[in-house]
Design brief:
This is MOSC domain-containing protein. There is one protein chain. With 260 residues, the protein is mainly β. The chain has 3 helices and 18 strands. It has helices spanning 110-120, 144-154, 218-226, and strands spanning 6-10, 25-29, 32-33, 39-43, 49-50, 62-66, 71-76, 79-85, 88-96, 100-107, 124-129, 139-143, 168-171, 185-188, 191-200, 238-247, 249-252, 257-259. The strands form 4 sheets. Strands 1-13-12-16-15-14-18 form a 7-stranded mixed beta sheet. It has a 5-stranded antiparallel beta sheet with strand order 5-4-11-10-9. The protein is globular and about 50 Å long.
Length: 260
Amino acid sequence: MPAALSVVRLSTTPIKGLALAHPSSIELTTHGAVGDRQFFLIDEEEGRLQSCTANAELLPLAARFDPDSRRLEVVRGDEVLCAGTVDSAGAIDTDMWGLRTLVADVVAGPQWSTFFSDLLGKRVRLVQARQSAYDVHPATILGSSSVAELARRSGLASVDPRRFRMLIEFSGGTPHLEDSWGGTLLRIGGAVLRGGGPVKRCAATTRDPASGAVDLQTLRLITAYRGRRESELGAGATFGRYCEVLEPGTVAVGDCLRVG
């Protein structure tokens, strides 16, 4: 009898590109997990989205946001590096990798642009998405067996699944089982999802999720045994799957994942 599938990790972050938190549960909506990737950075000159792919300095930092008080904090360990109440300084449209336009609000207050500009060595602004600044689709999913298979094929003892920054990680099943879920209904906790296309991986996965240092050639290792595969973002190293959320609900660690 096939092993049961269940949620083993959830990964979110209030500011896109910063260190992930791993809550015991999330409220999943048609626009993604509540509070996940609510803020993001753009460069001041062209308004281009910034990520940890080219900004390794973001990964050692974490963010905390209280939606009731609207207080946002950026921390390193127990040290609060920048904090304040979030207010809007006007709306702005952001291009999300050429796939959609995201309406967001520039966060008021010079401390935010100064802090992140000094950190990254270029002029950037912090903005708040009115929904969620997910990349392509509102949810992503990856099997622990797939990560273990990548390690085995690469001759490694293990690979840290956090480097893939997936919203939902599940255990059970064969390696790359999620590859077969295109168009398939997935019932997880109180939510119903539909499997989308494969996730094309970028160089962010080569970075250690704690330090930001490039320490593993994940793209080369993935394509070495899986080849280059087509995705919505073109051909490349694909690993994991996008999902649409058909029915919002609570998803928690330990919830069963039912296919079909």
